[in-house]
Structure formats: C-alpha cells, structure tokens
Write the structure tokens for this entry.
Amino acid sequence: MKQITVPVLAAIAKALSGATVRWVDCEPDTCQRIYFANHTSHLDALVLWSSLPRNIRSLTRPVAAVDYWQGGPVRRYMASVFDLLMIDRKKIKVHNSPIDMMIREIGNTNSLIVFPEGGRNTTGEIGEFKSGLFHLAKKRPDLELMPVYIDNLNRVMPKGEFLPVPLLSCISIGAPIFLESGENKKEFLKKARESVMNLKETE
C-alpha cells in the first residue's frame, strides 16, 4: 500500500505547489547528501522531497519537528508515508542528540533534508542558521552539503491555513559546499547561509 501511496502523494504535492527545480552548477546524484534549505512553509520538506528524481528521493529523508507532524492522524499518516525523521525539540539529550540521531539514521547510504533556520521564517528573509548543520558537517565531512532555495511556498500554504493554495514555486539546488580545514562554526554557517541566498539572486 505504501509503495502506491508515496508516488501518488508526491505527484499531488508537486501539482499543488507547481514546483519547478533548477540544478545550478550541480547535477542530480544518488551519493549521500545533506540538502539544506530556507524554511517558510510546512510544505517545504514534502515539496522539496517530491521534486527530487525518484531514485534520489527513495534514499532521502526529510527531517521534521515531531510536535507538528504528530499533531493529528492525517499528519501522523503523512509522516509515516514520507518516512520523516522526527526530531523532538523539547526532549534533546546530550547522550542522544538530534545530530547523533541523524548520523545514525542515514548510515552510509541515505541523504537528509534539513532546515538550518530551525522554525519557519515568514518575513521573506533568510534567518540566521543554527549550529546543527555545522555539527553534521564536522561529524561527516564526506557528505555533500547542497544549498537549496525554496521560493513562494509560504504563499502556497500560508501560516495558519490547513489546505494549500495552488501557486507556482521554484526550487533551486546549488553546488555542494564543505566544511574547510580550520573553518570555525561562525564562518561556516555564514558561508552556508550565503550559499542559499546566492541561489535566490540567480533566479
């Protein structure tokens, strides 16, 4: 049943968002990657995931907040279907941090979709990145870190709305970045944020 549901729901997500994808100075690949994007809508993770080529999205798990996606039977079902990696932001423990969970879950095969701003940003600007992406890069320097700029999804599903409003949106995926030798957290997060902002400027 799940094998049937996933492609159908992926097609619906793409249709509702009207999402088009641009690969800027990079190509689709099944190698392990962390796709990190700006965050303006609850649909961000699902639309980005559904917009990836099928062979890539079968290896990719969106990271999502458990407090939202466990809020009701429909969301719980969607979280199960899309195999969301659920993070409980209220129960973060030193011996089982979200970073450790992500590293453990992806193993040597899977990729992730993350949102370094943390919560959704409805101002239209890209907020400061939290430290999670830096710690992922530090623990797994082999992973390709792919900047993603998602445009217009905050209008597809405005804050407070239950159903999406069909509109055109664009997803731009840029060339990978890496944590360089000697690069500190502040420098790296600034570089990562700017790599997403630069994709906005190239649209």
User: Anything to note?
Assistant: Residues 16 and 166 are 5 Å apart (CA to CA). Strands lie at 20-23, 33-37, 60-65, 85-87, 111-114, 144-151, 170-173.
